[in-house]
Amino acid sequence: MIELSGVFFLRLSIFSIGFCFLRRLRKGIRGMALAAVSASKQPPSSSSSNPQATWLGSLLYNANKFEANQYPKRQKTITSDPYIKEDTNHHEDDHPHQSTTTTSVTHIVNDQEAQILQRKEEEMMVMKQPRTSVLTRKSTLRPTQLVVPAPLSCPAEMEIMIGKKYEREEFQLQGKGFAVASKKGKRAVMEDSHGVMLHIDSNPKQAFFVVVDGHGGRAAAEFVAENLGTNIMKEINNIENVAVGSLEEAEHHHIEQAIRRGYLVTDHQFLSQEVNKGGACAASVLVKDGEMYVGNVGDCKVILSRNGKAQCLTQDHRLTRPDERARIENSGGFLECRNGVWRVNGSLAVSRAIGDAYLKQHIISEPHTLSLPLTPDDSDCFLILASDGLWDKVGEQEAVDVVLASSSSRGGGGKKKEDQDEDDSAVEACKELVALSYRRGGVDDVTVMVIHLPNFFS
């Protein structure tokens, strides 16, 4: 066993010594080959001095050339002209009798150096290219900056286009003996409106005033404001022509009947239109021959201030009234409470209105009416007509106090000056009442009208 191991190690030693000798011999031969190659490139006189080296070098040179053709290294031609493209298939050995451009230098580089040189060449080519149109070359710049216009500032009183009509979010009107102020709430359309008729039959002591609160759109409110006063006066003229020579009490009764007829006719005219969507509540005052006639449907109110005390001249047509609830139920309707508010068929919160065709079987347009004489003792009395947007947030007596406070802040300066101050105080009082409603959280449309009655009776 020991002899076998000794023989094995001996053979292994001999093999190692032989392998090392062969490696050293190979290196020596390669060195001689390189010397022979260099000698072959020298003039013939220098190469002939060592024919053995020349022969051996030629042999190894041909062997290296064959190996280079089998596994070519990547070549890179770097020239001073960036427009000369790289020829990756050109090898000096393939064309020994041709030389490259005198301005180029050929280098054999590795892959990483080749990539760096290629990027530099591309940059130089881009810099030396002639400038062309942005549309004819591939743009590498940023996209054009998007200019966003600044939002327009909106004034306090902004006019809004509604179809072919304009309306203001806030509106004030000052007339002889009256003033109006209104403001749009959270709805997209201002649904309140108002109407004024002065110098009826050329009589400066006859006038008609109405405040209208629409719902389901603005169409009904506008129609009522434009036509209710005219229809009432037509009915009054018809009755007077028939009742000539009647008693005074009967005449008052006939005028109240004419007011009722005016409301009913206006309702019928609106429903007969092609566009009859929505409805409207209204509160009106007619001053005629020293008498005041009041009518209303819905929840608009008329408040009389006499000696600084508030007196309501209208009746709310809401479903909290037992008589109105019974009338609707007897007509086949039903009542539903939504968010604490009773509604007809779960929809409308008032029991009387003009319009509302889809509920006409239950919602009537017959108004509550009242007549009241005016005397010289009522020299300081005035009226407040307003939609429910005010009365939901401001009490009746509180509204009277606001108007009185505005009137007391102005005074003196003669009769003409007093009249002007009176008109100015009226519009200021209307604006203050509208602002008070919104300060208390109101979001509904609000319309307020203040009328100084002494201007319309002797």
From TrEMBL:
Pfam families: PP2C. SMART domains: PP2C_SIG, PP2Cc. CDD domains: PP2Cc. Keywords: Hydrolase, Magnesium, Manganese, Metal-binding. Its cofactor is Mg(2+); Mn(2+). SUPFAM superfamilies: PP2C-like. Residues 177-453 form the PPM-type phosphatase domain. GO terms for molecular function: metal ion binding; protein serine/threonine phosphatase activity. InterPro entries: PP2C, PPM-type-like_dom_sf, PPM-type_phosphatase-like_dom. Residues 84-105 are annotated as: Disordered. This is OLC1v1018499C1.
